[in-house]
Each structure stands twice: as C-alpha cells, then as structure tokens.
Specification:
The complex is a heterodimer.
Chain A (H helix, E strand, L loop, with lengths): L2 E9 L4 E8 L3 E5 L6 H9 L6 E6 L2 E5 L4 E2 L7 E4 L11 H6 L7 H15 L14 H14 L4 E5 L7 H18 L3 E5 L2 H7 L2 E6 L2 E6 L1 H4 E3 L5 E3 L4
Helix pairs in contact in A: 3-4
Chain B lengths: L2 H34 L5 H13 L2 H12 L4 H10 L7 H25 L3 H9 L4 H30 L2 H7 L9 H10 L3 H31 L1
Helix pairs in contact in B: 1-5, 1-7, 2-5, 3-8, 5-7, 5-8, 6-7, 7-10, 9-10
The chains are: A alpha/beta, B mainly alpha.
C-alpha cells in the first residue's frame, strides 16, 4: 500500500487536524488518545468528509485534491470501513448485510470468496440471524466480513476492539491477524491501545490533537513497560 | 345504517385514502430534504409546510378556493386546457384534505428520517452504494415505521377535515359530503339521532386509525 496524505487540513471542534504523511505498511496503525482526530483521518481517506485542503492518493490514484477540485465519492473509492460499533444495517439479516457490498458480476468467484471469508471469521452459523441478536464480538466479525466482501483496495478499521471487554479482545485479535495474513488487504487500524499496534501492525503514525507526532515501526516506537503492556518510548 | 349514510362513510374513506396516497411521495421527499439536506430557503419551506396546522382551516380553504377556482391561476389553467374542475367537486375535497393533512405526514416522516443513523448511510456508500440505492435500501426502510405512523395520522386528520373542505368543495349531498360535513348539516336540521349515528361511526374509525398509528410508533421504539 502506498497512501499519501499531503497538506491535509481539517478544522475540528477543539483543534485543527494537520497531516503530511506517506503510509506504506501492510497494516498501519493510527495511534493516539481518544479525541486526537483519528476517526476524522479515516473519514477523510474514505471520502465521508471533505477536508478544508488535502491531497490524498492511494497507490497512485488521486482520491482527493482540493487544489484541483478532485473528490472521488466514497462509493467509488473501493475503501472498506469498519466503524467502532460495526454499524450493521439493523433491518437486514447478517446474510444481506454481508451481500450488500459484494460485487455481483463475478458470481462463481465471489461465491467462493463469500464462503472463504465466512470460514476465516467463523460466522457461517450467523448468516440467518439479525444484527440485534449478535454479541459485540460477532457484530465486529460480521462488519469486518462485510467490508472484506466488497473487495476493497484498503480496509479502514476504527477501534474495532474498543467496545469489547478484555477476554473478548483476546478472542478477536487472532481473527484480525488471520484477515491480515489470508487476504493481504492493506489495512489502516485506528486504536489507542499500544498492545494492539504491536500485535497487528508494521507501521504506526502517532497523532495528538490533530498533529502527527511520531511515525515509524511499532518496534521502534513502543517498549514494554514494567506492567505488562506497551507504552510509547520517550523521544531521544 | 342507511344507504345514504353508507355512501357518506364510503366516500369519506375513499377521499381520505386517496389524499393520503397522493401526499405520501411528496411528503417523503419534503421530509427527507428537511431532515437531511441544507439548502437556501429551507426555513421558508419549513414554515409554509407547517402553516395549515396553525392557520384557521377556513382561511386555508379560502386561499385554495381563490387559487383553484375557475378564475384562480391554477383553476383557470386546469379548466381551459384539461376541462378539469376542482372546486365544488370530489377533487376539491381531496385537495382540501390533502393540504390540511400534509404537515402531519411531513412532521412524522421528518423525525423518522432524522432518527436514522447517518453513519449507516455512510457505510453503505463505502460498500459501493449510490444515493438512490442508499435511500431505498437503508434510509427509507429504517424510517418506514415513522412514515407509516405519519401517514395514518394524516389519514385520520383527512377523515375529520371540515373547514377547508366546506369552502373548496361545498357541502353537496352525494357529491362532496363527507362524514364531518354531513354531521354539520344534520345538526343544523335538528336531526340529532342521525348525527349521533355518524358521530359514533367516525369515533370508531378515528379510534382504530390513531390506535394503529400509536402501535407503529411503539413498535419502532422497540426495534
């Protein structure tokens, strides 16, 4: 993946989001405390929000260029999005949620892809259920599958584990790792949990109040603290 | 119930149903525009739509009469080019009750649209859906209960409309007379027993419709 965020500027309620970064990792994390502007970055990449100024390019294709009035709408970007709460369509069954974004033309191929995604995420038994009847972890897996089935070129994950309790987090993480290894879809993973970054990502962009403060490999930026958790290394 | 009373009840139900069906697409579009879009003149349209709720019904009826009469701007056009008369016909009844019940539909539908989480529509867009597909597969189904409840409310308002109807359509037995107009005539003539019979019928119909409407609202809360 080569995602370029140039001169990104978006005024938010308490600060201005300003970014200039080139993200090349297979799974890149955007790390920061809550309210740091992480979700806004995802919204800009997905085309759900317009920046005051920005040039956003994915693998050589310009998605947003305010200077040249280019703004590819979200539906044409081919970018999957898994929001924090999953945002499953409550009036549709799990099956219809999953099929919502699946391309229709390659029937045979998409059928096997459908089965494969269901198998990897172990949600085959849920397809006839309603979203309301699913547990938090199941919802997240279905939302992840739905985004994957739309054959995205990039997958955005907005704190997919934040709403889950610790034991459930430990259960879902292997699924994310399997998705990473099986489907090879580039991902941007937003989180405020350093352990998740270390477990899943090969690149991390640290932002604070809308500004990028660090950028590098998780191994370079994080260290294990005395308590068994990862913390940001102090800047040398 | 006499044949005449049956005709009145049947006529009232038909015009109320027709007016509700007619305002439904417009009401949905206006409600969606008010709930989901910002545009110039929005507050003016908002106020115009709500006006029939606060204006005296006879005032609305008078405006419609002037507008739709043979010498009115729209009435003369329809008469000249389509040989169509609105005033003092069943069409006048439909127009009068449609205008009077429109705000109720728009209010309910607007709230229903506002309650749909925009995040769901955004996610649908990231899955490749265009605006129309998002509207018909996400927004409209999720707002449907509120819209149906609003339509039922508009229908019940249409059933009982009096002031605007009597000005636009008159009170012509067998032609434009609805339950409300008929009760008025019967009371004027001192036929209280007959008036009570129609009153009872209208109470039963109104009760059922409002009850259904409430049922839809409550179901939506549980969903």
């Amino acid at each position: 993946m080569k995602l370029r965020l140039q001169n990104v500027r978006l005024p938010l309620a308490h600060f201005v989001l300003e970014l200039d970064a080139e993200i090349t990792g297979q799974v890149a994390a955007i790390f920061g405390s809550s309210g740091a502007g992480k979700t806004s970055v995802l919204d800009l990449i997905a085309g759900l929000r317009r920046a005051q100024s920005a040039r956003i390019e994915l693998d050589g294709r310009t998605l947003t260029d305010t200077g040249h009035r280019v703004f590819v709408p979200a539906r044409q970007r081919g970018i999957g999005y898994v929001p924090q709460d999953g945002a499953l369509f409550p009036h549709l069954s799990v099956r219809h949620n999953l099929q919502y974004g699946a391309p229709r033309h390659t029937v045979g191929e998409s059928k096997s892809q459908f089965a494969h995604v269901l198998e990897v995420l172990e949600i085959g038994g849920l397809v006839d259920r309603r979203p309301q009847s699913l547990s938090g972890g199941e919802k997240q897996r279905v939302a992840l599958a739905r985004a994957l089935l739309s054959a995205p070129r990039l997958l955005l994950l907005d704190e997919p584990l934040a709403a889950l309790d610790q034991p459930l987090k430990l259960k879902i993480m292997p699924y994310l790792q399997r998705v990473r290894d099986e489907f090879r879809v580039p991902m941007i993973y937003v989180t405020h949990n350093a352990s998740e970054v270390v477990a899943l990502c090969d690149e991390v962009l640290v932002i604070d109040r809308g500004k990028q403060i660090r950028h590098g490999a998780p191994g370079e930026l994080f260290t294990i603290s005395e308590e068994p958790q990862f913390v940001l290394k102090s800047q040398s | 119930m006499s044949a005449e009373e049956l005709q009145i009840v049947w006529f009232t139900l038909r015009v109320a149903a027709l007016s509700t069906v007619l305002i439904l697409p417009f009401g949905i579009v206006v409600a969606w525009l008010l709930a989901r879009r910002d545009w110039r003149g929005k507050s003016v349209v908002e106020t115009l739509v709500a006006l029939p709720l606060v204006l005296p019904p006879v005032a609305t009826g008078f405006l419609l009469l002037k507008f739709l009469g043979r010498r009115g701007p729209l009435g003369s056009f329809l008469h000249q080019y389509f040989d169509l008369d609105i005033v003092f016909t069943w069409r006048g009844v439909v127009v009068a009750i449609a205008v009077m019940s429109f705000p109720l539909l728009v209010r309910a539908a607007r709230i229903a649209f506002q309650e749909v989480n925009p995040r769901l529509e955004q996610i649908a867009a990231t899955l490749g859906a265009g605006r129309l597909r998002i509207f018909f597969t996400i927004t409209l189904p999720l707002a449907a209960r509120g819209i149906v409840a609003g339509a039922l409310l508009a229908f019940s308002r249409a059933l009982g409309e009096f002031g605007a109807t009597i000005l636009v359509a008159g009170n012509i037995p067998g032609k434009t007379q609805t339950i409300a107009l008929s009760i008025y005539s019967l009371v004027q003539l001192g036929h209280d027993t007959a008036a009570f019979r129609l009153l009872t019928i209208s109470v039963v119909i109104a009760f059922v419709v409002v009850w259904l409407s409430e049922l839809f609202y409550r179901r939506r809360d549980h969903a």
